[in-house]
Amino acid sequence: MTQHSLTHQHPAEAGARPGGAARPAHGDLAVVTHGLTKTFGKGEAARTVVSGLDLAVPRGAVYGFLGPNGSGKSTTMKMLLGLLAPTRGDVALLGQPLTRATRAALMARTGSMIEQPPGYGHLTGAENMRVVARMLSLSQAQVDRALALVRLSEHKDRLVRTYSLGMKQRLGIAMALAREPELLVLDEPTNGLDPAGIEEVRHLLVSLAGEGVTVMISSHLLDEIDRTASVLGVLAAGRLVFQGTRAALMERSVPDLRVVTPDVAALSPEEAGRLLAGLVAAPGVARRSADGLVVPGLAADGVAELVRRLVAHGVSVHEVRRESQSLEDVFMALTGGAGGL
Ligand SMILES: Nc1ncnc2c1ncn2[C@@H]1O[C@H](COP(=O)(O)OP(=O)(O)O)[C@@H](O)[C@H]1O
Ligand SMILES: [Mg+2]
């Protein structure tokens, strides 16, 4: 999907502002990529792990970057931050192309945490923050604000090696936040957190987005970010298989159809196969349930035809209804249920 259709289809949720159409095309997008591709290795050993990504992250959004383990999330984020050179394609951040010449200035406006939370175990939280502050010329006020935002102020004088994983993640977020970035790129910041920790990070990200910070956050677990994110990008094996709002993702799905009939036991698998022939990709995907038949992936005209065939076959149809489908089901179908989902 191009950045244009994203903002045009979902102006409210995608964060487009009135008059946005009159701006330069990239004005309302904090991250834009075209054909972003990364191949590791050469010759026989070459493996393309990120392939032709066209990302569009609206300004002020919480963008959930989802995909199973190994789908290429970290590799993509490293390219967005200039930590890894793309094999092909380009990146623009905050309306400017990311190049060697612009990287330092763009990174001063971007906070990030990639893979493991940073921080020296033999230093306290406050000492770690001082290292970052010196590197980025931050004020004590900025450091204190960041520690308060992640609720680490009272633990700042403890050695980081005594921190829980959640506290280490929060310190990493504080380091990313202290420079008061316009763009925050966080790679699996909820990884390994308990539900309370996840909730806290969620809350923090939503309030940052409320202040206008664009947050891009990755996860291999949909439910860790689905309620937080206003826009989702779903990666499967290095390809972007979906980008848009949560609602648009739900629309993508065709929920299973449940046919309630007392006659299902009398239907042989061959008969059931004949009844479904040409309606679904593979009749084998239908399954019997205690009270009838469950058929996935059947569109409206397929439903009408199936009912006609059932009636013609003498099957008494008591009820035909759509099963509700969770976002998780849609996500699983999109990503093929691979990896750690
Ligand atoms: N430096 C590298 N050299 C070779 N392969 C790599 C390198 N970094 C990552 N990969 C591979 O690229 C794929 C995507 O990895 P990654 O971006 O870490 O996925 P994710 O963050 O979604 O789990 C994986 O198969 C991984 O093994
Ligand atoms: Mg990763």
Radius of gyration: 24 Å
**Element-level helix/strand string:** HHEEEEHEEHEHHHEHEHEEHEHEEHEH
CATH domain class of the largest domain: Alpha Beta
Characterize the largest beta sheet: strand count, sense, and whether it forms a barrel. 6 strands, mixed
Low-pLDDT segments = 1-24
CATH topology of the largest domain: Rossmann fold
Please state the oligomeric state of the protein chains shown. single chain
Bound molecules: adenosine-5'-diphosphate, magnesium ion
Number of extended strands: 15
Distance between the termini: 24 Å
Task: Name the CATH homologous superfamily of the largest domain.
Answer: P-loop containing nucleotide triphosphate hydrolases
- Please state the overall shape, judged from the principal axes of the Cα atoms: elongated
- What class would the helix/strand composition place it in? alpha/beta
Beta-strand content bin: 15-25%
What does this structure look like?
With 341 residues, the protein is of the alpha/beta class. The chain has two domains: 3-246, 3-Layer(aba) Sandwich (Rossmann fold), CATH 3.40.50; 257-324. 34% of the residues lie in helices and 23% in strands. It has helices at 3-9, 11-14, 73-80, 103-108, 125-136, 140-149, 165-177, 195-210, 222-225, 246-251, 269-276, 300-312, 327-335, and strands spanning 29-40, 47-53, 56-58, 62-66, 88-93, 96-97, 110-113, 183-186, 214-219, 231-236, 239-245, 257-260, 287-289, 292-295, 319-322. The protein has a six-stranded mixed beta sheet with strand order 7-8-9-4-10-11, with helices on both faces. Strands 1, 2, 3, 5 and 6 form a five-stranded antiparallel beta sheet that branches. It has a four-stranded antiparallel beta sheet with strand order 13-14-12-15, with no helix packed on it. A hairpin with a 2-residue loop joins strand 5 (88-93) and strand 6. Helix 6 (140-149) crosses helix 7 (165-177). 40% of the residues are buried. Magnesium ion (MG) binds at residues 73-74, 115, 187-188.
